[in-house]
Amino acid sequence: MLEAVGVSAFDENVYRAVLSAQQCTVADLAENAGAGVARTGQALKRLADLGLVRRVGRGRWEAVSPRSALSALLHRRRSEAETMYGEVEAELAALHRLYWANQLQSDPEALVEVLSDPETIARRIDEVNRSVTTHLWTLDKPPYLDAVGQPHFHEQEKTTTREWVERGVDIRGVYCLESIDPPGRMETVLRLAALGEKSRLLRHLPFKARIVDRRVAMVPLTGGSKESIVLVHPSGLLDGLIELFEAYWERAEPLLAPQVEEVEAGPSEEELVLVRLLHAGFKDQAIARQLGVSVRTATRRVAALMRTLDADTRFQAGVRARERGWI
């Protein structure tokens, strides 16, 4: 049972014997374990090194509280495993770069995978998405392979994002006006940001792309992602795409301001959605589609928001919202 934390089966038997008695002698423990005194003594020394037992007198031993001792040992083993995992990840990345460097020398066409079959595209995108470990950076714009705008897709997207965030993945998304145009899409994007995605908005993006772990990028060949895409592997081209993403990231506006939680009279969720739609340049008709209401209702809600912000114009509403830390 304790082999996972570095305690052998024999040492565990000795440890259990110490737990069952008070201030045992080595001879008593050896008899209990059915082993020689020398072997039992060596086991006690190993257990002492692990912090599980301690010497209390000449030839006498007692157990340290299992809750504190084993918890500390488990934490130590977990830290060692995480360190080792990080080292393996770094080595894996280095080996991957070496592999692709060799591939490019022998076959330059291996720089990219050109995919045109819809089933192959869907399968490879799924494979790449499942391989995410450290980074997921996206330039987001339509058209999409999935049913963006449908409730089931939004729920699936939130579940996946939550899982990635819990694993410590650096998730960044740059959205444009086209990508948040489908009804309810803006609300979903804000929820993804609340879950931990770092989300920003630009008025326009010239193309869409997804960069995974800074080791592969997926880019459509013809603007969309339904006809054909390319997978770009480690190379100067991938480095360029990474730098391009970082440039767009710097230009984009954050969708969630970090100080929102500190505002005493914070905005409601609907006010947050409205002010961000206004800030993005949406007109009443587009706002109505996002909220799933009539244009007249959307206009009334915008007017109410402007009264709340004590603003006479939409531009002034954006300024006041920024002053309050809403955007």
From TrEMBL:
It comes from the Bacteria. Coiled coil: none annotated. SUPFAM superfamilies: C-terminal effector domain of the bipartite response regulators, Winged helix' DNA-binding domain. Residues 264-321 form the HTH luxR-type domain. One of its GO terms (biological process) is regulation of DNA-templated transcription. Gene3D superfamilies: Winged helix-like DNA-binding domain superfamily/Winged helix DNA-binding domain (1.10.10.10). One of its GO terms (molecular function) is DNA binding. InterPro entries: Sig_transdc_resp-reg_C-effctor (IPR016032), TrmB-like (IPR051797), Tscrpt_reg_LuxR_C (IPR000792), WH-like_DNA-bd_sf (IPR036388), WH_DNA-bd_sf (IPR036390). PANTHER family: HTH-TYPE TRANSCRIPTIONAL REGULATOR TRMBL2. This is Putative transcriptional regulator.
